[in-house]
Amino acid sequence: MRDLLSFLPYVVRTARRARTRTLLTVAGAALAMGLFAFVRTVERGVDDLSARAGTQTLVVFQDSRFCPLTSELPVRYAGPIRDTPGVEEVLPTLVFINSCRSNLDLVTLHGVEPRSIDKVYDFKVLDGDLAGWKTRGDGALVGERLAARRGARVGERIRLGEIDVHVNAVVRGSGAGIDNIAFVHLDQLALARKKLGGATQFLVRLSPGADPAEVAETIDRTFKNDESRTDTKTMQAFVAGAVGEIREVVSFAKMLGYLAVVIVALVLANTVFISAQSRANEMGVMETIGVTKPLLAALVALEGVGLGLVGGALGAGLVALAFTIHPTTLGIEGWGIDFHPSLAVALQTLAASFAVGLLASVLPAIDAAMRPLARAVKEE
Amino acid sequence: MSLIEIDAVTKTYHGTSEDVTPLEDLSLRIDEGEFVALMGPSGSGKTTLLNLIAGIDQPTAGRVTVAGEEVSALSARELARWRTRSVGFVFQGYNLLPVLTAYENVEVPLLLLRLPRADRDRKVMTALGAVGLGDRAHHLPRQLSGGQQQRVSIARAIVADPKVLLADEPTGNLDRVAATATLDLLKRLNTEFGKTLVMVTHDALAAGAADRLIHLDKGRIVEDAHA
Questions:
Q1: Chain A CA closest to residue B84
Q2: What CATH number should be reported for the domain holding residue B194?
Q3: Long-range contacts of B22-28 (CB under 8 A, 24+ apart)
């Protein structure tokens, strides 16, 4: 290792000597590893949303409806649900979203009863106050990400969806998707949407120890013959259903990401191979001076790993920069999948770049090390 | 006892159509402090012999011993270490690493010997001073003339203080003035510093600097004369 580090300036300057080739290779690696980082970021967003969806909260939805725009249940269902054994609290919610399809400008309004909200949701008020919102009919609690995307500040009036609201507080939630929701008073949203007495869904917080499957079955049985049949799932299953399609897209994108990594490995291998071939005589001279064949192979590998790492760092850096400058949330069926720059993704990208660089260098390194010294010295 | 002993050495290269034997049953003794010129037509086996002495190539048969070390019996790793310590090589085309400065080129053998930085610095500057290029230490090879590059390569060859210097057509790429300066330098290393020199050359001027001329033809010694 010490010998390898001693020759680091030689490796770096050799890469700089063939500037255009090095730049093109690094650019290719950066693009491919950037794609890898992007796909990992998206996948992480989906995983994060799913992980934050708990199993001790149930969602009661209208049966056979998959989009909040089409599910309609009577608010009066809240009473029987609250009386179901194992239920601790119920929050009737009228949901308004600007689109059920995948979109990058998701606006989700949840009309809820102010007195019950903090019994069902766990969130932290980052700015403003919760008590003020409870007493102000046109007030809104705006999720942190939505506030950032819309530039909403406490005390301002903004238009969200189709209603004007006064921002009482900006909140950060521990549950799935809360950071992309604006909570408003149920009556105000119902009035605006002409859905008085209606709700899209009910959020049900279970008592400690209650069996979610049993409670869900009881709720659905209760309304089996009522005006609207219900379909009750845990929050986790509900979110999993919503993001199922996007997961498939991500899986496909992942394949493309891996393919890009393979392509960059081949490009790197080609570059390192040409570089090592063009320096056959130089390497012969180094061997004559006393550089061992394993060190020679390591020097070739160092070039490949270095190019891969620089490309990977650039790609990961560009993706992180893009998501920092432009915070992005992919909306799907009312759920927001946040794309955050993350250290974990950056490290994964660098690790993948290292592996790709090393893999790409194996053949050129072996080739350089296997070349007979007498022949290498002759090659000028 | 001689510093370099070549005993019944044969070297055969196996080709696809036919085998080539540039050296055949060759024996030779070179004493410490000698300046030997190897001469002969192309294909006579001069460079092959030089490569065998340097451990760059291995004999098909026979034995090569340099300073008591049987070079032909060393492993690749041992050979690499031995070359760094015991042999300095001067090439016709200078063969400096183009991305490294003169100082860094001369420093390479010392990096392999893992000497402390201060020792390396002292030895590099001494070697560059000995070849008259102390003031060109931080120049890249492309910023130096051919003669200067050859002097840097000589500095690199002597920096680890080897007993033997091997030179393959060291004046082949130089004009007359630079060639004379290079030969003077090699002669000085031989007489003042006691280096044993084995030089392959076609050039009568270069051969004139040596005190022993060995003529090779078809892999055998045809003449061995002291000047």
A1: A290
A2: 3.40.50.300
A3: B22/B48, B22/B219, B23/B48, B23/B49, B23/B52, B23/B59, B23/B219, B24/B218, B24/B219, B24/B220, B25/B62, B25/B220, B26/B62, B26/B219, B26/B220, B26/B221, B27/B62, B28/B4, B28/B214, B28/B221, B28/B224
